[in-house]
């Protein structure tokens, strides 16, 4: 049996975020097994080895704001990817009341 490292656990959770939904860094940390990993989630997503299959653009901060340091084309690209999935923004933030993933 092999133990998964923290990044692999994070990537497993991010792969589960459905089309048209977002999750927060803290939510991903909790679902990956450690609620204190919010920054680790950010680091893991920044070095995402497989952006086609690990949709890191679906992860936003707790206020629904996209990342200023989105590693795969910048913040505007993250916003465009989310909008292409029908994710609504209000004043530059994802409408979390409609688009926050329930983690199931």
In a few lines, what is going on in this structure?
By secondary structure, the chain is mainly alpha-helical. It has helices at residues 6-15, 25-32, 38-46, 75-84, 96-99, and strands spanning 23-24, 59-60, 89-90, 93-94.
How are the secondary structure elements laid out?
Blueprint: H1 6-15, E1 23-24, H2 25-32, H3 38-46, E2 59-60, H4 75-84, E3 89-90, E4 93-94, H5 96-99
Parallel strand pairs: 1-2
Antiparallel strand pairs: 3-4
Helix pairs in contact: 1-2, 1-3, 2-3
Major sheet strand order: 1-2
Fraction of helical residues: 25-40%
Rg result: 13 Å
Distance between the termini: 26 Å
Under CATH, the homologous superfamily reads Winged helix-like DNA-binding domain superfamily/Winged helix DNA-binding domain
- The CATH architecture designation is Orthogonal Bundle
Strand content: 5-15%
Supply the CATH class: Mainly Alpha
Report the mean per-residue pLDDT as an integer: 92
Count of helical stretches: 5
Structure classification: mainly alpha
The outline comes out as globular
CATH topology: Arc Repressor Mutant, subunit A
Please trace the helix and strand order, writing H or E for each element.
HEHHEHEEH
Features of the shown structure:
104 residues, Arc Repressor Mutant, subunit A, mainly alpha
């Amino acid at each position: 049996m092999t133990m998964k490292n923290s990044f692999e656990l994070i990537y497993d959770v991010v792969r589960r975020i459905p089309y048209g939904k977002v999750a927060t860094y803290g939510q991903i940390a909790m679902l990956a097994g450690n609620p204190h990993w919010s920054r680790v989630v950010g680091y893991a997503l920044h070095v995402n080895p497989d952006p086609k299959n690990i949709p890191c653009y679906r992860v936003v901060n707790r206020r629904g704001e996209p990342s200023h340091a989105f590693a795969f084309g910048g913040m505007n690209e993250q916003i465009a990817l989310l909008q292409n999935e029908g994710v609504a923004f209000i004043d530059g933030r994802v409408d979390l009341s409609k688009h926050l993933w329930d983690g199931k």
